[in-house]
Amino acid sequence: MSEVETARLLLRRWQEDDLERLVALYSDQRVARFLSVDGRPWPPERSVGAFEHFRRQWQEHDVGPWAAIDKHSDRWLGQIGLNELPRWPGPDKIEVGWDLHPSVWGQGLATEGVRAALGYGFEVVGLERIISTARPDNAASRRVMEKCGLAFQEEFTHPPWRLAADCGVGLSRPSVSPPRPPDGTGAPTRRRPQRPG
Ligand SMILES: CC(C)(COP(=O)(O)OP(=O)(O)OC[C@H]1O[C@@H](n2cnc3c(N)ncnc32)[C@H](O)[C@@H]1OP(=O)(O)O)[C@@H](O)C(=O)NCCC(=O)NCCS
């Protein structure tokens, strides 16, 4: 099972033609604002790197971030899912992440997708702990975390870290059952051992 459906989203693996969409997404100032220290739009090569990282995770571990699609219109909306942060300073290096096109913000889609990703990570992949990271001033993302039951863990200030450079809010929710998507989709059945950090 490598695809998940929620009430409104199809979370699927990456296709070749997603690259140009991802480049466009991260070149949008509104999206990139909280994704790095300087908050500037990503140059295409950085998005290519992210795309390759997303796909490599699926190839090597059979799990990773998904492309998020509006199920009803088939529109590509962004990315949501479990992403490995190999250089994250803490012991738990799998984060749940999200970046969506601004035209669909404020409809609860990130929350819906993140809940499904958490369910997948805990119940299918068998992860014991999933973190999420955001810059402290990324209020929308912190609200998404809160709505998904993620609890504040620690503030990191490690300048060398790509995502964590000044972004330091790490969260986890290891001891509670992940919330199920309201429509019951994405209810996983298979467990895999935890990936090595
Ligand atoms: C973060 C992001 C994915 C949110 O997507 P979304 O689909 O709008 O999220 P949701 O609708 O599920 O929830 C957003 C919540 O944040 C709240 N919110 C939005 N902007 C806010 C702000 N400036 N201050 C406080 N709360 C805010 C919304 O009201 C909503 O909470 P509510 O349901 O209690 O009203 C979207 O803003 C995004 O892609 N941002 C750019 C990339 C990014 O920052 N990615 C995350 C990196 S950690």
Topology:
Elements: E1 4-5, E2 9-12, H1 18-26, H2 29-32, H3 44-61, E3 65-70, E4 76-84, E5 94-100, H4 109-125, E6 131-134, H5 139-147, E7 151-156, E8 168-172
Antiparallel strand pairs: 1-2, 2-3, 3-4, 4-5, 6-8, 7-8
Helix pairs in contact: 1-3
List unreliable stretches of 5+ residues.
Answer: 159-182, 184-197
**Distance linking N and C termini:** 22 Å
Number of separate strands: 8
Write the CATH architecture name.
3-Layer(aba) Sandwich
Structural class: alpha+beta
Bound molecules: coenzyme A
For the record, what CATH class applies? Alpha Beta
Main β-sheet, in a few words? 5 strands, antiparallel
H/E series: EEHHHEEEHEHEE
From the alpha carbons, calculate the radius of gyration and give it in angstroms: 15 Å
- Record the strand order, biggest sheet: 1-2-3-4-5
Briefly, what is this?
By secondary structure, the protein is of the alpha+beta class. 29% of the residues lie in helices and 22% in strands.
